[in-house]
From TrEMBL:
PROSITE patterns, sorted: PG_MUTASE
Family: Belongs to the phosphoglycerate mutase family. BPG-dependent PGAM subfamily.
Binding residues for substrate: 9-16, 22-23, 61, 88-91, 99, 115-116, 159-160
EC number: 5.4.2.11
Recorded name of the encoding gene: gpmA
Coiled-coil ranges (or none): none
Entries under HAMAP family matching the protein: PGAM_GpmA (MF_01039)
Function according to Swiss-Prot or TrEMBL: Catalyzes the interconversion of 2-phosphoglycerate and 3-phosphoglycerate.
Organism of derivation: Microvirga puerhi
Protein name: 2,3-bisphosphoglycerate-dependent phosphoglycerate mutase
Pathway participation: Carbohydrate degradation; glycolysis; pyruvate from D-glyceraldehyde 3-phosphate: step 3/5
Root EC class: isomerase
Amino acid sequence: MNRLLVLARHGQSDWNLKNLFTGWKDPGLTDLGVEEARAAGRRLKALGIQFDIAFTSDLSRAQRTCDLILEEIGQPGLKTIKDQALNERDYGDLSGLNKDDARAKWGEDQVHLWRRSYDVPPPGGESLKDTVARVLPYYMREILPRVMRGERILVAAHGNSLRALVMVLDGLTPETIPSMELATGVPLVYNLKADTTVADKKVLEA
């Protein structure tokens, strides 16, 4: 049985380009971000990958990336489920701030702790642990059962919401996951075994 799960972080957003904390704010993709999403679709098409259903977040940069990927593989209009459970980590009071300005205000060490620790949230926001606690139940309830039934699934979402899934799939720990980066527009292609563990993984870099 084909148990295919593809994870794709959205292409570069306008706020990625401006070095701003984004979180649940909703900037669109840059021209580069659009091309990254299209290129991701082309790489999936080259492997002959097709999907039965897609999942994305409640934020437009992930939704646009999802749409562009589906266009490139010849599946525009594929049923897509949108849910804020897959949203980016909420950066709270940091949202919309330039990362350098945040360091000037709170100090390099404090901002690094908020960004790279597992369980220390920024003021008014979520830690990575909080994000994992939001994303994983949704994955277990809505996505994984479909994969195990043989449905081919695309999840287009965000760096931190996808890190929550990679943490489980790749067997990473709270100590190792904070340093793991997901590149914009680079699909991760997983095939799962019958016990839900990973049979193989491909990183479709340019």
